[in-house]
């Protein structure tokens, strides 16, 4: 009965669900997705690649190489400057005569020379010190020492003797001592000086001049060789008495720049 009272009815079109399509809302929902995809694509383009890493590494190494070359050049220039002011700078050696002594004194007559029968010979021994201020050792040759005496009426001092010292070597920034024996021919000077020597009248003054030639090998000869020459003048006084002839005091020496 109930089934008869409420017969089954078919659904109509009006009762079917109705869906409204909103195009504006659909566009708004789609735009963020599109933007997100675009941002993602941009990040993919900006991502570092192996080639960009290599370029950055090469530029970094190039900067380091330039800095290293600049530092090496500055150090080389400083080293060359230091060498030029120290090792490669050649300075003249210095001479000094520490002491002078009379080694031999003789007076004799020679009848074979009537013009000058009286022979007065005097041998002086000088202690010469050669100082080398350079940073390389110096070899020097045989040094020559000349002795002069002032003669009345002479324009220049008269040479009365000459002597030589043996060659040798002076260490770097060191000193070497050599002995020079000088034979003085007193009879060649004026009669007044001869009378002083024979009769013991006061002092006799002599002037000496010593010259030394040396050679320096810079950096073992790699930078070349330099020749140096130095000279000095000394004043030596002899005290003459009836008993003996001796040196009075120490020699007074000065550098001879006019060598």
TrEMBL record:
- InterPro entries annotated for this entry? LEA_2, NDR1-like
Q: Where in the cell is it found?
A: Membrane
Span of domain Late embryogenesis abundant protein LEA-2 subgroup:
130-234
Q: Any idea which UniProt keywords this protein has?
A: Membrane, Transmembrane, Transmembrane helix
Per the record, GO CC terms? membrane
User: Segment Disordered: which positions?
Assistant: 32-55
One GO biological process term: defense response to other organism
Topology with respect to the bilayer: Single-pass membrane protein
Membrane-spanning intervals of the chain: 61-88
State what protein this is by name.
Answer: Late embryogenesis abundant protein LEA-2 subgroup domain-containing protein
Species of origin reads Miscanthus lutarioriparius
């Amino acid at each position: 009965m109930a089934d008869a009272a409420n017969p089954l009815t078919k659904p109509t079109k009006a009762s079917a669900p109705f869906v409204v399509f909103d195009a504006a809302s659909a566009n708004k929902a789609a735009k963020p997705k599109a933007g997100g995809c675009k941002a993602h694509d941009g990040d993919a383009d900006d991502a570092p690649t192996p080639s960009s890493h290599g370029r950055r590494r090469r530029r970094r190494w190039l900067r380091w190489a330039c800095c290293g070359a600049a530092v090496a050049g500055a150090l080389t220039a400083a080293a060359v400057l230091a060498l030029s002011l120290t090792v490669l700078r050649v300075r003249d050696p210095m001479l000094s005569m520490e002491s002078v002594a009379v080694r031999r004194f003789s007076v004799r007559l020679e009848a074979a020379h009537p013009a000058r029968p009286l022979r007065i010979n005097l041998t002086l021994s000088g202690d010469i010190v050669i100082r080398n201020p350079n940073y390389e050792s110096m070899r020097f040759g045989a040094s020559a020492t000349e002795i002069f005496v002032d003669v009345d009426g002479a324009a220049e001092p008269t040479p009365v003797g000459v002597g030589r010292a043996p060659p040798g070597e002076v260490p770097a920034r060191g000193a070497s001592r050599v002995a020079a024996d000088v034979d003085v021919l007193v009879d060649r000077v004026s009669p007044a000086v001869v009378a002083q020597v024979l009769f013991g009248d006061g002092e006799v003054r002599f002037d000496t001049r010593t010259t030394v030639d040396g050679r320096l090998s810079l950096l073992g000869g790699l930078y070349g060789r330099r020749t140096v020459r130095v000279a000095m003048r000394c004043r030596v006084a002899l005290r003459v008495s009836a008993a003996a002839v001796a040196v009075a005091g120490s020699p007074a020496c000065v550098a001879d720049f006019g060598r």
